[in-house]
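Anyone have tokens for DUF1232 domain-containing protein? Sequence:
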Amino acid sequence: MAAGGGSADEARVRRDFWPTIRRVARNVPFAEDAVAAYYCALDRETPTHVRAALLGALAYFVLPLDAMPDFLPLMGFADDAGILAAAIAAVRMHMTDRHRDAARRTLADEELV
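Reply: yep, here.
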């Protein structure tokens, strides 16, 4: 997470999440979890520490350069999936049916994928 709090991560996620997920949604098996995490992270009812963990993981997901560059076929999102899976596992109880339902509806939208 960015130094000085989560505001930089939140700004990056708000700016870059949708272009990234639109580009990769058909090719990554964790797209629904990523979108549900996005909705949970931006939900003001979600506890601050949960929001911070998810925003950090989502910021890593949207970074164009990371441990394994995302343009590498099949392998490029392995590190992103691992980071996101760890964050989700740590805060799973805070990801509600409302977040997951919103993710499913969003991914079903033809404009997204």
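The chain has five helices and no strands.
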